[in-house]
């Protein structure tokens, strides 16, 4: 957000906050899927329907909030469409890193 979208001025503060909010919400939501199983989430282990639907609902509500009339009240703003490919890359990297650390932890300490 800082360098790519130039959200580095007081005027662009809401853009930075919106991007930070969405990235934080999605990464925190996806971590539930990452730590719930020893396997690779979504590939080797599928979540239950209630968990998957709840995850999708949280993601949709979070992203939708930045496009809603409440966005201004919360000091958020709609994100440019170019933000979302970057978001996917960041989340994919986060998931790969989390899976690697989880694998190391399980090898070192075991799965309880």
From TrEMBL:
InterPro entries: ATPase_P-typ_cation-transptr_C, ATPase_P-typ_TM_dom_sf, P-type_ATPase_IIIB. GO terms for cellular component: plasma membrane. It is found in: Cell membrane. Residues 4-102 form the Cation-transporting P-type ATPase C-terminal domain. It comes from the Bacteria. Its main location: membrane. GO terms for molecular function: P-type magnesium transporter activity. Pfam families: Cation_ATPase_C (PF00689). SUPFAM superfamilies: Calcium ATPase, transmembrane domain M. Keywords: Cell membrane, Magnesium, Membrane, Phosphoprotein, Transmembrane, Transmembrane helix. The chain crosses the membrane at residues 49-71, 83-105. It is a multi-pass membrane protein. This is Cation-transporting P-type ATPase C-terminal domain-containing protein.
């Amino acid at each position: 957000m800082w360098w790519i979208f130039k959200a580095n001025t007081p005027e662009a503060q809401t853009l930075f906050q919106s991007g930070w909010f969405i990235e934080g919400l999605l990464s925190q939501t996806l971590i539930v899927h990452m730590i719930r199983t020893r396997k690779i989430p979504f590939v080797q282990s599928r979540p239950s329907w209630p968990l998957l639907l709840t995850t999708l609902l949280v993601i949709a509500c979070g992203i939708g909030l930045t496009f809603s009339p409440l966005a201004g009240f919360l000091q958020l703003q709609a994100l440019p469409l170019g933000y979302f490919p970057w978001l996917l890359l960041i989340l994919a990297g986060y998931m790969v890193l989390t899976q690697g650390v989880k694998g190391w932890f399980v090898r070192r300490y075991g799965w309880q």
